[in-house]
Design goal:
Blueprint: H1 2-18, H2 22-27, E1 36-40, E2 43-45, E3 49-55, E4 62-70, E5 87-90, E6 94-95, E7 102-107, E8 112-121, E9 126-134, H3 149-173
Parallel strand pairs: 2-9
Antiparallel strand pairs: 1-3, 3-7, 4-5, 4-6, 4-8, 8-9
């Protein structure tokens, strides 16, 4: 009985030291990741729309979306030298959901590099993404092939058939070997 009276307090004290308390776990929250903004597609013809998706903003934040256009030299969307001005354009606000995420469509109206910025209020969190806006009639990047695979397959089958016919003709013209007596 004496051993139990001594052992129980020692075990309880040891468990208190070994196991962290729930209060100490709740006191040090893991830092939230910074907000992010994605835009799809990455290249659009002037007048077209992009889908802007944001995550990591404050719960229920009012998101202000602004678009700044950075024109390129001589109005060419492929020029490497930017002109040193940007035209900010404010769009209607969007509300972030309970998970701090939102999604909206934005129409882009000027040629150049468009930087879309989303800023949450009252959290003050902000994120940006860029989109290339090309002039109407200019070509967008080609991301596929124009080769008709059925045509390629038919040509392959035809060439195999011609090769087989030539093989049969060559075999039929061969003289049989004369037996050695």
């Amino acid at each position: 009985m004496r051993v139990v009276r001594f052992l129980v307090p020692v075990v309880v004290a040891a468990m208190g030291l070994i196991l962290p308390s729930a209060a100490s776990l709740a006191a040090a929250p893991y830092p939230a990741p910074p907000p992010s903004l994605t835009v799809s597609p990455g290249t659009v013809v002037v007048g077209g729309s992009v889908t802007v998706t944001g995550t990591g903003f404050g719960v229920g934040d009012e998101i202000t979306i602004t678009v700044s256009y950075q024109a390129t030299a001589a109005g060419q969307s492929h020029a490497m030298v930017p002109i040193a001005y940007a035209i900010p354009l404010a769009l209607p606000m969007v509300n972030a959901g309970a998970d701090g995420a939102f999604s909206t469509n934005v129409q882009l109206t000027q040629v150049g590099l468009a930087t879309i910025t989303a800023t949450g209020s009252p959290s003050g969190l902000s994120a940006s993404a860029s989109v290339r806006v090309v002039a109407a009639g200019s070509s967008l990047p080609v991301t596929g092939t124009t080769v008709n695979f059925l045509t390629v397959a038919l040509i392959g089958v035809a060439l195999t058939g011609v090769g087989a016919m030539l093989f049969v003709i060559a075999r039929s013209r061969r003289r049989p070997a004369t037996p050695i007596a």
